[in-house]
Structures are given as structure tokens and as C-alpha cells.
Amino acid sequence: MGSLPALSFKGTMPHSAQRGYHVKGTCRGRVAGSRRDGVAKVHHSISRRSRSNHFPSCWQQPFLTIFTLQLVVAAGPIKAAEDLPALLRDVSEIAAPGVPGQLAVFGKDAFVVVTGRNGNLAAPVVAAARWGKARIIAFGHDGYFGAEAIRTADTAQLLLNAIKWCGGPPVAVLAAHPAVHQLCVSRGLPSRLVTPAELPEALRTARVFCGQISRIPQQLLPHLEKFLESGGGIIAAETGWGWLQLNPGKTLNDHPANKLLGRTGVVWTDGTMQRTSPQGFDAKTPISELCHAGKAIEFLSRFVHKPPDHPSGVPPSKNNQSREAEELNIEQALFSFQQALRSLPSEEKWFWQKVGELADVEKQPRPTVDRPVTRLILEERLRIIAFAHWVQRLPVEEIPAHPADFPGTVPRSLPRRTLAVWLDPGKPGWQSTGCYAPPGEVITLELPQGFEPQGLVVQIGCHTDELWHLPRWTRIPAVVIRQPVTSQTARVASPYGGLIYFEFRGARSQGPLPITLSGVVEAPRFVRGKTSIHRWKEILSEPTAPWAEFESSKIILTVPTTAARKVQDPEATLAFWDRVLDACAELAARDPERPRPERIVADRQISAGYMHAGYPIMTHLDVADQLVAPPTRHTDPRWGLFHEIGHNHQESDWTFSQVGEVTCNLFTVYVLETVCGMTDRTAMHPGLRNREQRIQEYFREGPSLDRFARDPFLGLIPYLQLQETFGWEAYKQVFASYRKSPPKPRLTNDLAKIDEWVVRFSQVVGRNLAPFHRAWGLPVSEAAEAKIAHLPVWMPPGFPPEN
Hints:
Layout: H1 15-19, E1 30-31, H2 48-52, H3 80-87, E2 93-95, E3 101-105, E4 110-118, E5 121-131, E6 134-139, H4 147-151, H5 155-165, E7 171-174, H6 178-186, E8 191-194, H7 199-202, E9 208-211, H8 221-229, E10 233-237, H9 240-246, H10 256-261, E11 266-272, E12 280-282, H11 293-301, H12 323-343, H13 349-358, E13 373-374, H14 378-390, E14 417-423, E15 431-437, E16 443-446, E17 456-460, E18 472-473, E19 481-484, E20 489-493, E21 498-504, E22 513-522, E23 525-527, H15 533-540, E24 547-551, E25 555-560, H16 561-564, H17 570-588, E26 598-603, E27 617-620, H18 624-627, H19 639-647, H20 664-674, H21 691-701, H22 705-710, H23 712-740, H24 750-765, H25 770-775, H26 782-786
Parallel strand pairs: 6-10, 7-8, 7-9, 9-10, 23-24, 25-26, 26-27
Antiparallel strand pairs: 1-20, 2-12, 3-11, 4-5, 5-6, 13-18, 14-22, 15-21, 15-22, 16-20, 16-22, 17-19, 17-21, 24-25
């Protein structure tokens, strides 16, 4: 793998966290031959005593003050209850650098040191473990080794306690973390900054290594493994979610720190957390034993065989806890259990044995709309979670078909075929194939000779929304598998089935690429300009796959085949949607020839809301018929769909946070007027009715930014007032100005975005719009108004209203 990028994650949260719905961490199936070997073990023994009394000259540099630290070494294992006070001595609060990630703790000699908050649940941000004579401390963000974090609250004291607990000094500090070295020097602790190349020599005499393991080249990691096996102490800081972003196609099982330290019972996992104190995390907060995944699975196991008088699956607590407290304990245990499964080493036999028992396919639930799996049906939730992770460990030939009915099974009578599909390696995004993978059946992929598959990913399923966080599941929460293709011939299977897609990561310039798929069922797929109506009707006249797609260069619609059968003229359906996408591009001042088509997928259950934007745009099954309905003039019920497409055309520079649900509707109104021919805005949506009454009520109570932000249809009024006077052309020019000359530096706060918007719009229309926006309660600075003070002031007639 070589040396990883030396990046520190300081403030960029995962995109899914910013959006407010979770779409990452998809359930992965298995591609044959895709497993990676762990770091080879190198057995070496150096007694702690041989390293303890003789500091070599390299530790005794002139700038170091040698300080003899009195150590208390126990003769045997100490319980976490005794270790924890030693680590938290004089520590009340620690920093929260950047966006800290989560850890999973599961080993019998591993324990949680400090927790953060994940909603109303807790997650480890600092953890520790004993492993033979070795000791390790793990931090959930690489920024804990930075100067700012060390200066914050009691973080420095925790690091000093960790060095002592791990057996130090002397300490070998990776050169990327000089602040840790400086901390040691300031306290008189022997410390040495080392580059990765100097690490093998430095570890011969160090007692403790401190550094970000993912910065170390792979070929040097066996030296750190040897150090751990000989009883050395390791203090490591990593950002799990950040590493995943930098390493697409990999899982946290591939993380170098997890490969090395997973054996100790601590791993870095996906996800972020919220603070628990003003400066970061409260180190004195009592830690629930259910933050330990091993304790969590023991706790959950007692619910698997529920008593007959409790059909909900949650028996009464034996210690008279309230039902609410018991349910919170269950949620905490489920969360800890699932987080551990995301990164759990395959060598953790006891844990995986428990998971395997729960994953029994014969006992798997089948959630539906009529019989959902709810938060209280604990055994079923537990079995679904266990199966989703257990199946990732199976060879492709052993992946079973899950009995769930979604996305859908395929009758045995339908022929499994071998089909050739053509892909464009230079095209971003998912590429459809018109092929369906039956649940639990192996699909074979054949690439052309000489083609280098690096960056090629195969995906089964399009319903990428994950539902783990929801209290009620009407389908399996994660039904999409994605795996890199690493050889000319590969096999892949999904327990749930689904449409098959490919994606090329990284730019390629070569022409169309043929890929042969064997074992698939042909699915209905209409490609505008390529598929004939005759061929379309022919496919639908016979039993076929349960999902169909309508595709153009601008949009792809994925609906159940039952909805597709109702479409008499798919060419007209796609022509309509192409006009919708062209209209949005026109208003946003974008090139109508898109780098990739937008996607809209109908789903039984989605992660948030009734619909949401993204790639793909997700909506519910009750919208499927509407999605592919023929176009109509002067009326259209698809406000919600146009709204989500509008979200995908928003730009952060001209959308301050209070109007996130407003500026997207400019595209909705524009489409309804220019494509659908609607001229009466009150007929577009009930929220556009009674405009004057809304204005009167708003001004009667007094304009304010908070009230303005609470009602997106109220917030839309000033934007429509501007359009009604200056026309859509003004918006196109304003948006084009942002695209041509984006603000420099890029705007990061709402007040700056409001100022920029007012100045740019005023300059385009030749009117001073600052008083208008202030009247609506938007704070426009004097500096911004000074730039447009030479322009005549504009107000709509009779505005603002007199109270």
C-alpha cells in the first residue's frame, strides 16, 4: 500500500452526516478472490527488563532532560476498574479535534476510557487494552496528537498518563506529531522524533510508540507488530471515517491500525460523534458497560429466547428498571454491537461464533409493510444485523438467498442468461446493465483480455438508503452490495438480489468496454434513442425481473416492473424528463450535457423524509406510477420530485442555511411554468396560496430571520417577488455570475452569503435591493450596501405592508 497521505481531518464531516440521512457503509457482499491478507506475524521476544535500564545515546540528545519516572509494574492483569483511574488521574475533560470518529471495544482485556455522544447513545472516543505484556491506547481522531488539542483542557495530562500506563518512557514519536514530542520534553520524559524509515531502529530501545499508524508504509508495519508482541506500548490516533473517505473501495478491516491492533480488542470504526462538554468530551461521565461490544452481545443474547408472555420481544427488566431505561440499554447494546461488526477482525472467533448463531438464514425475519420489524422486536432486529455482517465473511459460493421479499425474488422458471453489456470507462456514476442478479445466486463477470480492472466496482442493487437508525423497518435495512473487481474473471453474489451496475473510479480515456455477465436475468431497460418500442413491449410481455429502468443521457428512472408495464410510450416519458432536466440546467446556468444522468429510485422505505435529494434521489413506491406517467399540460402533481431535483441544482454560495428548502423551489416553479405550462402559481402547491395573507401575518408579528427560516413557502415569497419584477433572466444571470466568478475566498457563513447575494442581484438588475431584503428580516451589512448605494432603491408596490 505504501505510505498513506499525511492528512489530518479537521472539520469536514462525512457528506451523509451533513445531509441528515445516512447513505454510506453499504452492506457488502463478496467478490471471489477479493480478500486481503493481514500483516504477517513476525515472532520476536525482547524482555521488558532488557530495555528498561539502558537508554542508548540516541535518546539522550542535548535538548532532552533525562527524567527517571517511577513505574509500578503489576505482576498480573489488572482489571479495567483499576486501570481506568490511572489513565484518568487529573483528567476531567479532553479536546474534540475536528470531527472525532468512533472506536469499537470488544476484547476481554479492552475497555472504554472516554465516550462521546451519538444522539442519545454513547460511543468510545478513547479506549485502551492489555494484550499479553503489551498495552495500547486508541484515540478517535489523529488531531489528538496536534498542538491545539494538547493545549485544550486535560488532553496533555491524558497523554502523559497514557505514556506512563503503557510502560514509558522512553517514547518514540512519529515525526508527524512534534507536539507530542514537545510535551514529553517539557515534562522531562525521554522522547525521540522518528521518521517512518527510522522506526525499526528506534523501536529496539523504546518502551512506547506514539503515532498515526496509517502514516507508516506497509512494509514497515511488521516492525511495529514485533514491538507489540514483545510487550511494547502503543498510543495511536486515527480517524476511521476519514480514512474511509480517502480509500474508496476499502473497508475498515483494511485499515492498517485495525490490522495491527484489532487483536487487542479495540478497532476504529465508521461514524462521528457529538461533544459532551464545552471543550470536547467529559472524561468523568460514567461509562455504560454496554459501550463494550462484548458485554453488549452478552446482554442482547438474553433477549433471543423471549418469554411467551412478551410477544414484543423485550422482557421485563430483572432489576426493576423503567421500560424507557431498558429500551435505551437495548439501543445502546445494539449500537455497540453493530459498530463493532463494521471493523471486527475475522480472528475474533468467540464474537463471530455468536454472530453466526444469530445469522441463521432459516430464522431470518422478513420485514414488510404489513409486518414491520420494530424497535421492540429485538430478536428479529438482532438477527437481521448479524446476518448483514456475517454474510460478508462467506465465500461467494456460500452466500445464501435471504428470505425477504425486497427488492424481489426471481422464479426458478425464468432463464438465467449470459449477456454482454457495453460500458463507458470515461463516464462517472453508476452504469446500468439491464441485468438482474437473483438472490443468493452467483454471477460471473468476464472482462476483456488486457483490460486493467483497477478502479472498477460492481454493484448489486440500487436501493442504497440504509435504515439501521430507524425504529421501524419494512425492508432489510441494507440491501446493496458493492465490491471492487480485481481480476479478469470475478464472481459476485448478493443475498438480496438486485439490478446490476458498474462504476469506474478514476478518469479513463479508452473507448467502450464489453463485459460479459453470466447467471443473470434480463431486466426491462428502455434507453432513449436506442431501445425500440417493439423490443420494450416484447420484454414486458413475458415474466421478467422485478425492477425496470428508463434511461436517457440526462436522467434514469428506476421503478418496479409493475409500474413499467403501464407505460405505453417510454420515449415520451423520457422526453418529458429530459426537458425538466434541461430547464433546471438552464436556470442554474449549467451545461445541459451532464457528466452523468440524475437518478430517481422508488423504494419501499427510505432513510429520511418522504423523498430526499442526492445520488440517487429517493422516493417511495407510491410515487412510482407518477414518476413514469405521461406528461400533461397545465397541471402536474410532481412538485415533490421537481423539488428534489432542485436540491441537486442548488449551490452553497447562493444558498444560506435558512433557505435550504427555499432556493430549490425556484427550480420547481420554473419547471412547472416552462415545461408543464402552468401559469397559475396558486395551483402549483397549497403553500403558494394566500400570499398576501401570509405577508400581512408575518409583518404583523415582526420580521425576523428565525421566523423567515421556519416556513419555506413564506421564504419563497421574496424570491418570487424578485422574479415577478425582473424575470427569470435575472436569476440566470446571477447564477451565471457565481459560476463564472465564484466568491474568493469561498463563503462559509450565512451573513457573508446574504451580503454576496444582495450585492450580485442588485448589480444584475441595476437596483439597490438591500432595503427590500432588510424589510424581510435578512441582515444586510452596511459594507455590502455601500457597494450598491449608487443604485436606485427598489421595493414592490405596497411593500412592506403597513400595520
